[in-house]
Amino acid sequence: MSFASMLTGLTKKKVRFVVVGGVAAAAHGSSRVTNDLDICYDAEAAANIGALASVLAGWKAYPRGIEEGLPFIMDDRTLRNAPILTLTTSEGDIDVMDRIAGVGPYDAVRRHSERISALGVRFRVLDLPSLIKAKRAAGRPRDFDHLPELEALLALRKT
Amino acid sequence: MTARQTAIAAGADLKWIVNSAALLGKRVRYDRQQAKWWGLVSLLTGQLGLSLKAAAALSTVALRAGSSSSRVTAGADTSGSASLIVDLARYDSIFLGNLSRALVHELPRRRGRPPRRGTKGAVANAQHYGVDLDLIRSAIRRTPAERLALLETNAAFVRDMRRATA
Questions:
Q1: Could you give the CA distance from residue B94 to residue A24 in angstroms, rounded to a whole number?
Q2: Given A1, A26, A93, A98, which is the most exposed site by the fewest CB atoms within 10 A?
Q3: CB B59 within 8 Å of CB B67
Q4: CATH number of the domain enclosing A122
Q5: Comparing C-alpha atoms, which of B17, B72, B114 is closest to residue A102?
Q6: Residues A83, A105: contact at Cβ < 8 Å?
């Protein structure tokens, strides 16, 4: 159960994704600890939806916060009809989404991302200015609480 | 559940739910059962083009079957040549996915306008907010790989602590 195992699993299956949220913030220097991996995936390509669904099914993904034992089929049809899922898996918690508020769908997210090497994997993370935009657009108290740190990071990186 | 959470769990627009409830003469309740029912009504009207009244009646029949059967014949013509089958296992999967998203992510938003950036600049504002600038400066000196390795260690520690105290 780790970010490394999730990122390795996704890249091995050639899923097209960009890391967003808390892990992206940590990659840019945020000191906040997060327990879930948030990714934005390419929902335009059927093969990519299939690959992601297959990885998640292999990890026994189940909706987070829902009592256990209810019928849940993790496949490409479920992902197409519920493109934003908050899941708990054997590898850890993961949120998958086809678009990011304040940034847009996968293509826009990818344009505003940078490639990094970490945890033994090469992958893309949303850039810091877009991460700030996304937090602002999400509008939840916990997102607003994160803004001062992210904005200070951006300012200090420039100096 | 809030109205917004109910709409997200149903995968339907909140205004559509409120207007449809008025047309059906039905009182809207913002809870899990209603969200599931509105979700199926929305699917039958939006994707199969059924009338609102027919979709409401068929949804009630389909969901009454509960989890005892995965496929339910919600309606059929008198000759039995045409029928409408609802795949409840599939619908449940989509509904649970939406419900989880509604409960985990769609927390009440802050009322009013977003807080304005202070006039002193981002660094001074962060300091005023209680952000440890030394921590940020030391993070900037590290590479992304070093930062994420540290996150992995800290996240594992938090998980272990939670497990130990559960």
A1: 28
A2: A1
A3: no
A4: 3.30.460.40
A5: B114
A6: no
pLDDT, residue A53, reads 97
Which amino acid, residue B113? R
Q: Answer yes or no: is pLDDT of B117 > 80.
A: no
CB B89 within 8 A of CB A71: yes
| Residues of chain A neighbouring B136 (CB-CB closer than 8 A) | 29, 31, 149, 152-153, 156
Q: What is the ipTM of this complex?
A: 0.91
Most B CBs within 10 Å, among A8, A95, A151, A158, to test the B interface: A151
Residue among A29, A66, A140 whose CB faces B96 most closely? A66
Question: What average pLDDT does this structure show over B104-119?
Answer: 68
User: A31 lies in which domain range?
Assistant: 3-149
Total structural domains within chain A: 1
Separation CA B100–CA B105 (nearest Å): 8
Cβ pair B70:A34 closer than 8 A: no
